[in-house]
Amino acid sequence: xxxxxxxxxxxxxxxxxxxxxxxxxxxxxxxxxxxxxxxxxxxxxxxxxxxxxxxxxxxxxxxxxxxxxxxxxxxxxxxxxxxxxxxxxxxxxxxxxxxxxxxxxxxxxxxxxxxxxxxxxxxxxxxxxxxx
Length: 132
Description:
By secondary structure, this protein is of the alpha+beta class. Helix content is about 25%, strand content about 35%. The strands form 2 sheets. The protein has a 5-stranded mixed β-sheet. A two-stranded antiparallel ribbon has the order 1-2. Helix 2 crosses helix 3.
């Protein structure tokens, strides 16, 4: 949960971003497409309240983006997917489960259409409320 802006009564969320992390994952609708890993670019925006980390200058009070990037890389070492949509959801679930931001946005870019710079999927997921 973020801080409340007293003037507007809206929640303020800080963001940690990883932009275009290059990975090689096996992805593709056909078996032939999944034979070799393909280059993907993954961007992640993690929403959190960074107040405690900023005040204490302590990395243990925030999301460690280095470890997030390593976990994303490791995810592709043991899996393959048919759809980039599934990759995006798997990454979002991994980050929410292990690193506990309030919300995460994941974009997966695939470089498969020669006439286009990329195709991509972008999803946003939030932590599920804890049952009382």
